[in-house]
Protein: Biotin carboxyl carrier protein of acetyl-CoA carboxylase
Amino acid sequence: MAQVLSPLPGTFYVKPSPEADQFKSSGDAVAVGDTIGLIEVMKTFIEIKSEVAGTFTAYAAEDGTPVQAGEALAEVAE
Structure:
């Protein structure tokens, strides 16, 4: 099981906008470079991309919550 980690502190989001679907759901295929979430830092949104391929398991961080650098955001089964 691989974890996708936050590269920086900020607010984590699992959707591109409030009315959109989540980037990934449990069981979805994940390719290297797939966007799995966003981190907002001072009104700037940074895409968080997977560095591993596999099957998306779950988000480790909740939508709209503050995260720290190095914190697990999601899990991917390789």
In short: The domain at 2-77 is CATH 2.40.50.100 (OB fold (Dihydrolipoamide Acetyltransferase, E2P)).
